[in-house]
Amino acid sequence: MKAILALLALVSTAKAQTLPGTQPLDPNPDFSAAMVAGIDKFLLRETANAKAARASQWPGDAKVHREHLKTIIGAIDPRVPCKALELVGDTTQPALLAETEKARILRVRWPVLDCVHGEGILIQPKAKPVARVIYIPDADTEPEKLADDAMLAYSGCEIVIPALISRASDFSGNERLGVQTNCPHREWVYRQSFILGRHVIGYEVQNILGLVDYYSGQSEKLPLLVAGLGEGGMIAFYSGALDERISSVYVWGYFAPREDLWQEPIYRNVFGLLREFGDAEIASLIAPRPLVVQHLGFPSVGGPPKAKQGQREVAAPGKIGKPPLDAAKSEVERAKKIAPGDWIMLATEEHGLKEVVSHLLPKEVAAQIVKGIEPVMPNKNEQRAPVDATRQKRMLREMEAFSQRLLFSTETERNNEFWKNLPLPKPDTDIAAGLAAFEKHTAGERDRFWNDVIGRFPDPNMPMNARSRLVRETDKVSIYEVTLDVWQDVFAWGWLCLPKDLKPGDKRAVVVCQHGLEGVPEDAVTDDPSNRAVAYYHAFAQRLAEQGFVTFAPHNPYRGKDAFRTLQRKLNPLGKSLYSVINGQHQRILEWLKAQPFVIADKIAFYGLSYGGKSAMRTPSLLPGYCLSICSGDFNEWVRKCASTDMPMSYVFTPEYEIWEWNLGRTFNYAEMAALIAPRPFMVERGHNDGVGLDEWVNYEYAKVRRLYNKLGIGDRTEIEHFDGPHTIHGVGTFEFLKKWLR
C-alpha cells in the first residue's frame, strides 16, 4: 500500500522535485570529478591497509610465495636449455671486444624462451675464476659501458653483463604500418604482454635465470652473485627471490616501499603485487642468503620520452626518483622482522667496497676480489668497448614476436580451460535441465572471472542514502538525477528517465543505458542538437523512456583522462581493476532499482556503447541481476585488439594506457564473457564503419557466442545486427530486441 501511495504521489505531481523514498540532492557542477576524487581516497586507504594485511601471510610457505611471484610477473614459460653461451659477432664486428693480460671481453647471447635470447657482454678471466657474477645495468646503460670498468676485468670473477630493454622509443611501433609511438621500449613490451599474463619484468627475469641455468650446469660450483643497478637492480632482486641457486644479491638503486608503485612507469605495474608483496617481503625470500641494498644510483626518470616527429604521443606518465633513506631503512627493518638475522645490509655512500663484498661473498673469495680490484681502482676506464647498435632492436623484436605468438596459444588455453569444460546438453536433452547444469557450472567460472581477473571488492557496505532531484521534463518523460552511496567516499550517480504515462500500480522494465569514454549520464539522455553527444547516443535513454521503458543512465568513472587512468594504476597493485569499482556501483544501482515501486525487478536490462559496451561485457557477466545485455560499438576479438602490433586499431598504438587487463587473454575473451551472460539474452550492435574493430574479427568472436546459444537450445536469445554506419547507437534491431525480451 505504501508503495502505491508513493507512486501516486510521483505521478500526481508532474514537477515533484525528488523521487519518493529519497532525500533532496544538492546540485553539483561536476559529480564526475567528485566521483573520481572519492574513489581515489578509497583506493589510497585500501593501499595503506594492504601493507598491514600482508602481515598475516608472512613468513608463510616460501615455495608458495615464489610461485605467486613468478605468476604475477609473468615468468611462467618453460626456458630453453642453455648449455653454452654463444658468441655474437661477424666480419665487421668481431665477438672479441678487448683482451688484457687478465681477461677477455666478448659479446655473447644465450637461449631463454622459444626464439628469445638474452644478450650481453662476457668478461672471462684467464685464470681460474673465484666467483661468477651476473651484473645487470640500468635499462638506459649499455653493457659495454660497464665492461669499460677496469675493476671488472681485474676482479678475478667471470662476469656476464646482460642488456635490458631500454627506455628509448626508437623501435616502439610497426614500420610496415607506418605507425611509431613514444612508448619506452619497456612499455612497448608491457602493452603487448600484460593482457596475456606476461610482463617485461618476467621476460627479463627469465633472461637472468637462463644464465643461472647455464652456470648451474657447470661442473665446478662457484659462488653466484647477481647484482643490478636501477632497473637492473629490480631484475636482480626478483631473480634472487625466485631462484635459490643464486648465492647472493646486490641491489643498487631500487629497494624502497612500493605503496607508490602507481606513480612509477607503467612497465613496473604488477597486478596484485601489494596483496602479498612489498620489497621487504620479496627480500625475505632471499634470506638467509646475503643481500645488500645500496641506497644510491636510483635512475632519474621524469616521464616517458618526448614524442619525436612522426611518433604518436601515447606513452603513460610515470617517474622514478630517489626515495628517502628512512623509507629504505623502514623496509629493511620489515624484512628483518619477517626473516630475522644479519642476511640483509643497507649500504650508503659511507660503505666501501670491502664491506659490501665481504657481506655478499665468502670471506676468502671476498679477499681475493678486493685484492685484484684495489690496484686498478684509480684507473677505472681502461677498456673501450664499442656498443652493439643492433642489439636493442633485435632483443625487442624477439620479445614482441614471442608475445604475438601467445595470441594463438592463449586462445588454445581458453579452449582447454573454459570451452571444453562447459556441460553442453546432448541432442534431444531437455533444455531446462541442460540450462540448469550449464548455469551451475558457469557460476564457478563467474567467480573466477570476478575474483582473479576483474578483482572483487566486498559488497557495498554503506547505507544507500538515496538522493534525487528533478533535472528537467519533456512532454513524455520526467528526468531525475540520483546518487547512491556504495563504500566510504564512493558513490553511484545517474539520470533516471520516467515515462509520464506511468499509472498507479504500473511496473515497467528498466534499461540501464551506459555511456562511453569521457561521457556523462546526460550524454545518453540529451536530444539537444548542439550537444555533440547526440551524434553518438541519439538520446537513446530518452527515446526508450518515450516508448514506455524506465531508463537509468549511470555514470561510469572513466572520465578525466589521467585522473581516472590513475585509478587503474592504484587498483592494479591491489589485484583490482576499474571494473572492481564499477561493478560495486552497479550492485548498488541494481539494489535500488529493484526496490522501486515502478520497476519489474527481474526485468532490468543493460545497453552500453563504446566503453559502455565494454561495461556491457564485464558487468552483466558478473551481475545476474541484469536480465539481458546489449554490447554496442565495442564487441571484438578483444585480446587481439589490445595486444596485436599488426592491427592499425590496436590499443598498443593509442593513449588508453589503462585498457589492459592482467591475464585476460589466458582466461576470458569476449566470447567467454558472453558465455557468462548466457542463458540470458545477449545482443551485439555493430556498425560496418565503426573503427573500433573489423567486421571479420567481430564476427569471428561472435560466432563462438552463436554456437554456444544454439548448443544450449536457445539460439533465439542472441542476435547481432550489422548496420551501415559508424561508432554510434543505431537503435533499430536493439530496440526490437529489448521489446521482445522485456515486454
Describe this structure in words.
By secondary structure, the protein is of the alpha/beta class. It folds into two domains: 2-48 and 458-636 and 681-690 and 717-742, Alpha/Beta hydrolase fold, catalytic domain (Rossmann fold); 58-381, 3-Layer(aba) Sandwich (Rossmann fold), CATH 3.40.50. The strands form three sheets. A ten-stranded mixed sheet has the order 1-15-16-17-19-18-20-21-22-23, sandwiched between helices. Strand 4 (103-113) and strand 5 form a beta hairpin. Helix 2 (31-53) packs parallel to helix 19 (562-571), helix 6 packs parallel to helix 14 and helix 7 crosses helix 8 (231-242). The longest helix is centred in the middle third of the chain and has 27 residues, at 391-417. The radius of gyration is 29 Å and the shape is elongated.
* Rg, Cα atoms, Å: 29 Å
Number of helices: 25
Number of distinct beta strands:
23
Fill in the CATH topology of the largest domain.
Rossmann fold
Query: What share of residues are in beta strands?
Result: 15-25%
Q: Which CATH class of the largest domain?
A: Alpha Beta
Assign a percent range to the helix content: 25-40%
- The separation of the N and C termini measures 25 Å
- Identify the CATH homologous superfamily of the largest domain: Alpha/Beta hydrolase fold, catalytic domain
- Name the structural class: alpha/beta
Order of strands across the widest beta sheet?
1-15-16-17-19-18-20-21-22-23
- List low-pLDDT spans: 7-14
Shape call: elongated
> Mean pLDDT, as a whole number?
95
Q: How many separate structural domains? A: 2
Mind summarizing the main beta sheet? 10 strands, mixed
